[in-house]
Amino acid sequence: MALTMFSDCSSSTTARLLPLNRTGSGFLHLRGSSATLLHLNPRNPRSLGVISTQRCQSSYSPTVAMTTETSAKVIDGKAVAKQIRDEITSEISRMRDAIGKVPGLAVILVGDRKDSATYVRNKKKACEAVGITSYEVRLPEDSTEQELLKYIAEFNANPSVHGILIQLPLPRHMDEENILNAVRIEKDVDGFHPLNIGRLAMRGREPLFVPCTPKGCIELLHRYGISIKGKRAVVIGRSNIVGMPAALLLQREDATISIIHSSTENREEITRQADIIISAAGQANMVRGSWIKPGAVIIDVGINPVDDPNSPRGYRLVGDVCYDEACKIASAITPVPGGVGPMTIAMLLSNTLSSAKRALNFE
Ligand SMILES: NC(=O)c1ccc[n+]([C@@H]2O[C@H](COP(=O)([O-])OP(=O)(O)OC[C@H]3O[C@@H](n4cnc5c(N)ncnc54)[C@H](OP(=O)(O)O)[C@@H]3O)[C@@H](O)[C@H]2O)c1
């Protein structure tokens, strides 16, 4: 993993902090220094019963609270992901009791990338913890496409396997599109199959699966009762696995979307118009305080290693958003780590459970 140089965002370039008094149902109201209300969505039964009162630690102190500065609500992805895993565990035990079957997830890893091996290990552990049977295949780096396709065909045909995940990236000599297309759409729990993405993009169509990371972003908004309908949203990044499906999901929920990418001009100005920002650019601390509209909600997908001589590993992980600055302006924000990251695996488990329920006709 290449380290990026730490782009320091401790020196404040933030816009002057304004008290926000926004009206409108189910959104955030900031008044003065400490009144941050996160309205629960009464129509969403999954809305968190208790919202954590945790706030951005780095900028919050009694002294700060006496000034005009505000401190954003921290959207706790770790806690929400745990809640979801608990729900999945009880659904799986209900399934086992009722029909004697449990969901199965097959993970295929090609090559010996350490980061990929860690992701696969974490997914396997997460499966075991909720009661999903996991199947793992590890192939050497120099395997042929035909060998990999053979395993995919076997898992496609295996009725105990309800989800198939090919750990990306694949070695360069393999055609990723060809491989991903070989996964049966009914088992495409990653949601990357073009048919799933096509259905996501079309009005009146339903994808069988939604890609896990963007699904996790939207789930966080739902569970914190943050309304999306009618809001202006900016998605930074347009990758097939995060930015593009995140924008499609927001659009399906009736937000008005702008997508920012590496050729976009006036990124700061466009982002400043957003009520909701989802950033997935992979650029450490790119989104400064001055990019953020007071009261905006920020979902930071970026995971960027930056040099940190004080850390035992010599680096630490930061998001795309300059957290310290954003905390003073946004009304709610996901931390990195502990925000979107834990949600991705939780959504994978959720997609696998839905797939099994569909295949086994279990309500
Ligand atoms: N939390 C999680 O579970 C999770 C999951 C997946 C990814 N991630 C993280 O999310 C980040 C993005 O991942 P990805 O796979 O989507 O990355 P990616 O495939 O590299 O896509 C990055 C996107 O950001 C855009 N971009 C890059 N630099 C930019 C800039 N300076 N200004 C505006 N747009 C810029 C790119 O624009 P172009 O299209 O013009 O090149 C591209 O669309 C990474 O940090 C990754 O580690 C986290």
UniProtKB/TrEMBL annotation:
Protein name: Tetrahydrofolate dehydrogenase/cyclohydrolase
Keyword Ion transport set for record: no
InterPro entries membership: Aminoacid_DH-like_N_sf, NAD(P)-bd_dom_sf, THF_DH/CycHdrlase, THF_DH/CycHdrlase_cat_dom, THF_DH/CycHdrlase_CS, THF_DH/CycHdrlase_NAD-bd_dom
UniProt keyword annotations, A-Z: Hydrolase, Multifunctional enzyme, NADP, One-carbon metabolism, Oxidoreductase, Photorespiration
Organism listed in the record: Macleaya cordata
Catalytic activity: (6R)-5,10-methylene-5,6,7,8-tetrahydrofolate + NADP(+) = (6R)-5,10-methenyltetrahydrofolate + NADPH; (6R)-5,10-methenyltetrahydrofolate + H2O = (6R)-10-formyltetrahydrofolate + H(+)
Pathway noted in the entry: One-carbon metabolism; tetrahydrofolate interconversion
Positions of the Tetrahydrofolate dehydrogenase/cyclohydrolase catalytic domain: 75-190
GO biological process entries: photorespiration; tetrahydrofolate interconversion
Assembly behavior: Homodimer.
Signal sequence, renumbered to the chain: none
Functional description taken from the UniProt entry: Catalyzes the oxidation of 5,10-methylenetetrahydrofolate to 5,10-methenyltetrahydrofolate and then the hydrolysis of 5,10-methenyltetrahydrofolate to 10-formyltetrahydrofolate.
Start and end residues of each Tetrahydrofolate dehydrogenase/cyclohydrolase NAD(P)-binding domain: 211-359
Record GO terms (molecular function): methenyltetrahydrofolate cyclohydrolase activity; methylenetetrahydrofolate dehydrogenase (NADP+) activity
One GO CC term, this protein: cytosol
Stated family: Belongs to the tetrahydrofolate dehydrogenase/cyclohydrolase family.
